[in-house]
Specification:
The chain has about 525 residues and is an alpha/beta fold. It has 12 helices and 28 strands. Strand 10, helix 5 and strand 11 form a beta-alpha-beta unit.
């Protein structure tokens, strides 16, 4: 039996972060992962992350994965792939299946970072080929370059459902609708808004009642549900689709903790059965730590910080740093983690209806129930301003932890304030130079550069655009409103794609000036 000072189970964002932090302290670390590639979910994430620059804000997930792998290699972390950990026992012994053989290892400390598994719902026809999880769709598209299908219905309006819906469209699929049994959008409003303005309708308080087809999916029926989530007869709606994508939450993969005798709890706010841990991830079994989604479902940025905290604690447990050194490191990490757990989407707010922003502004009910902020609501938010000439318009309407727009502007036109969850606003006396960095840096694609009167009765709007083929200068099409409906004719007057934009193209369209504050997407 081979012995290691620290064994990490899971080479995803939290596991790699934990391994790196411990290895930097001098700990001998080995990481086991059942997949053929390390990095976990990060390499499926082609969108830009939220948070601050300390949290990899505005960096695409797969780039963060590449950075973590480089750090792990530089720190001397050994990563073993295609290695399934099948057992964890009370003496910190694990069994690992590698190939056809079972190997035994002993750890002085153990960090479990196995992540979470997708939930599934059942309905008539749910076993037909074509009914897939959102994570499976991401794997097909972003790992293997395979289009899951042509026409897709998404079930689930949390961040995963919203992000994957957008990525399906980027892959050339048509998303016919986003349905959810809940009465309100579950994910970030900016994610919902960028889906809605492409023309995808939202059906809240709806669920799937039947998948149609014999040997594969050919259609789907959804129905409205009552307050008990039971389908209401006569409300059926049918869609021709070849894929039904399921994004109804995640459950922590916590079986190893239960096997080892750790104290467990059923906690719906954390996603299901999780180990009972202290503030830094240590379980009731001393020297055994949890990190990431396995201890409670959160965003990847939080998982990475939790991993680093567990790595520091494991190093101190092994004697590689003092209690004082540990506390000093954890102090900064706790501050970072706390900033990500503030705002409307803080863990303590799960399931609650937040009716006002931290600034005291009424939350858009249209956004929560339809996926877009209505024209008569948008003006109440501080980022929506009117100025002569080109100026930024930030349609950021919820308190989420994000501030790359503030750092991106070279002229300091945009400010978040002291709290990372504050709504952005245009600073007094600032002058926009039309560089577009704020538009490209916005992880929620919620910033536009607007000139409300550029002459001859027209306005110009610069918007983020991440679809192919790219429109060309001179193309004439439709300007779509926030609800995805056509509001006016639009002409492309400029297309910019700089290395600094990181593959977010800036599309400038010309529209009649009365639609300057209404047109938010271009369709050829």
């Amino acid at each position: 039996m081979k012995r290691y000072e620290l064994i990490v189970v899971g080479a995803g964002p939290s596991g790699l972060s934990a391994a790196i932090e411990a290895a930097k302290c001098g700990v001998e670390v080995i990481v086991f992962d059942e997949n053929e590639k390390p990095g976990g979910q990060l390499f499926k994430q082609i969108h830009k992350f939220f948070g601050s620059k300390e949290h990899h804000a505005k960096v695409r997930g797969f780039k963060i994965g590449e950075e973590l792998l480089r750090e792990a290699s530089d720190a001397g972390v050994e990563v073993v792939l295609n290695a399934t950990v099948t057992g964890l026992y009370q003496n910190k012994e694990i069994t690992v299946r590698i190939g056809d053989a079972i190997h035994h290892y002993k750890g002085d400390t153990i960090i479990i970072a196995t992540g979470a598994a997708e939930n599934m719902v059942t309905f008539p026809g749910w076993t037909l080929p074509g009914v897939i999880g959102a994570g499976a769709a991401q794997t097909l598209m972003n790992i293997h370059g395979i289009q899951p299908g042509k026409r897709v219905l998404m079930l689930g309006s949390g961040n995963v459902g919203l992000v994957v819906s957008f990525q399906l469209m980027q892959a050339g699929c048509e998303v016919v609708a986003v349905a959810d049994a809940a009465p309100r959008i579950g994910g970030y409003g900016v994610h919902a808004a960028k889906v809605a303005r492409t023309g995808v309708p939202f059906y809240l308080s709806h669920t799937i009642t039947k998948a149609h087809g014999t040997d594969h999916v050919t259609g789907v029926t959804i129905s409205e549900v009552d307050s008990s989530f039971k389908p209401i007869a006569g409300t059926e709606k049918y869609f021709d689709v070849d894929v039904i994508c399921i994004a109804v939450g995640l459950s922590p993969m916590s079986q190893l903790f239960k096997m080892s005798g750790c104290n467990m709890e059923d906690n719906p706010k954390k996603g299901g059965q999780v180990p009972i841990i202290d503030s830094y991830g240590e379980t009731s079994q001393k020297g055994v730590f949890a990190a990431g989604d396995v201890s409670g479902i959160e965003e990847a940025s939080s998982a990475m910080i939790e991993g680093r905290m567990a790595g520091v604690c494991a190093a101190q447990y092994l004697g590689y740093c003092t209690e004082e050194e540990k506390e000093n490191k954890l102090k900064d990490l706790e501050k970072d983690l706390d900033s990500l757990r503030q705002g409307m989407f803080a863990p303590s707010n799960r399931g609650k209806l937040i009716e006002k922003t931290d600034e005291g502004i009424d939350v858009s009910m249209s956004l929560l129930t339809k996926g877009f902020v209505s024209d008569d609501e948008i003006e109440r938010f501080p980022g929506v301003t009117h100025k002569v000439g080109v100026h930024p318009v930030m349609e950021c309407t919820q308190n989420i932890p994000c501030n790359p727009c503030q750092d991106a502007c070279p002229k300091g036109c945009i400010s978040i304030g002291e709290n990372i969850t504050n709504l952005p606003f245009v600073t007094d006396g600032s002058q926009c130079i039309n560089c577009g960095m704020c538009v490209a840096s916005c992880s929620g694609q919620a910033i536009f550069l607007v000139d409300e009167d550029c002459g001859d009765g027209y306005a110009s709007i610069t918007l983020p655009y991440e679809f192919l083929p790219l429109p060309k200068i001179g193309d004439v099409g439709s300007g779509l409103g926030r609800n995805g409906e056509r509001v006016c004719e639009a002409t492309v007057v400029n297309v910019k794609n700089l290395k600094a934009f990181d593959h977010t193209n800036l599309l400038t369209i010309k529209v009649p000036k009365e639609y300057a504050m209404k047109a938010r997407f271009f369709r050829a």
